[in-house]
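Chapter review: from sequence to fold.
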Amino acid sequence: MEKQTGNKIIDMTCFLLVVFLMVLLSLLVHEKEVIFPEVGAIAAGMFLTPHRSWMTNGKRLFFCLLLCGIAGMAIVRFLPLPLALQMIVAYILALLIQSLSGTSFMPMISALVLPVLLQSRSIWYLYSLIIFSLLILLIRKILVKKGLKYEEEFIPVQRELPWKLTFFRILVAALMILLAIGTGWRFMAAPPLLVAFTELSAYKNKVIRMHPIRVILLLTLSAASGAWVRLAFGGLPEGYLILSLLISSVLFLFIFYHTGPMVPPAGAAMVLAYLAPRESLYIYPLQICLGISAYVGITCLRNYLMQKKIK
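The token string follows.
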């Protein structure tokens, strides 16, 4: 019991260290786009969960993130389409890259869609992606070497696009993106929600069948832990950003461990609040709640209809 508690403290410390260094670099270079929300999801999946959250290895994780980050920025620069269509193209491309990667590493979807949503043109987005994905992998390797994490075998996932599931994912994501951008509530289609939806929509995924309400609660509370703490620090100098995000991260850790299912994209929903426009922070958690509720509801309905068809 003491060993488990000690390991959990080390896991949480590693998570907080990565967040701290990310915000510190953002302040040092005066570049907000150093804050890469998917760092929260990857760190949660690599440190906080009992086992590695995705079937991948370090090389594939890094190169998939890098490829998707470059592709996302290329869409912003070279594909002159309305924002909603750019995001739909980005999501489809991310699904294709993921299917060819031989992994189940879904956070690459966010790496591709996020710069499109934010219309990012800063090279610091790629620098941050490279630095902090490598840092997470390095810390994970040290934990394995010290016997604090297991060395888990990588077995390549079959490279294929399950066409019915892929069509379902694209249709639902496209409708949500069009709705979110059309209403101005763009965080209903936030990249962490697209990642969560893609992971949970796999028919074999038991989390969404057993804990649909808890999934919604986890994502919503994680978003609130970022948005409302940032609001509370709103009138303070920029240097307090570190303290603000660390407090959000501590709240997130409590939520992550006590809500129920450990869904790593919740970490990205917390960090994304620090990139959202200040005027949207009051309703940011509501947008995340509505978005994940729609994804979970539609997926549960699909699973129910599939079960009836099988019977």
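Two observations follow directly from the output. The mean pLDDT is 91. The chain is about 70% helix and 0% strand.
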